[in-house]
What does this fold into?
Amino acid sequence: MNIDENFFNAKTAKQNPETIDEILTKNEKVLFRSKPKKSAHIAEAFFNMLPFVIIWLLFDGFAIFMIISNGIGENAPGPFTIFIIGFFMLHLMPVWIWIYGIIKATAGYKNIEYVFTDKRIIIREGIFKLQFVVIKYNTIKKLDLKKSFSDKLIGVGDIEIKYNDNQSAMIYDIENPAFILNKLREITSESKLQIEYPSQIKPETTEEKLQNKHKVQLYKCPNCGANRRKGEDECTYCGYNYPKY
It folds into this structure.
């Protein structure tokens, strides 16, 4: 970090960063960089609400067909025709929402990026205006893996991150989601330990305890220098009798 007379000068600072690299600190190390798998990202938007949309279209399509086939409104005044058109435009709102979701997923894909550094998680997203979500590892409360039907078919998954008090963020449609989730849990635990024990010896993990439990302590024979186990009374190489303490 370069601290000088321009440090608090808003005019010299970049106001609207466009890439994640622009907001990284000088010594921050990027560990992982990814985007959602495009086919999965768009497919999820397409299949979301699809059964409901099909039923809705069939219902409204049948109603419109009956109105036209029976000649309802042929000789009706203009306001009635405008009312019917406006009614169905509003009644098809679930369809418009579904189409908007597909357009949003397609248009916004290029701006989505996920970066994990040695200090934090950074998520970039947005269509017309870029947004950056920054999550420090020590603020993470819970990490969960979620898979929709289309995710399972394509082989991707979503990771939900709950952090601070009631905040949450999503990492959508990444490959090897279970592996990435486990690595995030590891680095999150390590980050919390570094804060809790900044200058102390960290507590042993279960794996470390098992390794230390089965370690064999070896000592040097004072006569010939051969290795001996703790508790032995006589050197197996030179026959030297160890003194009793």
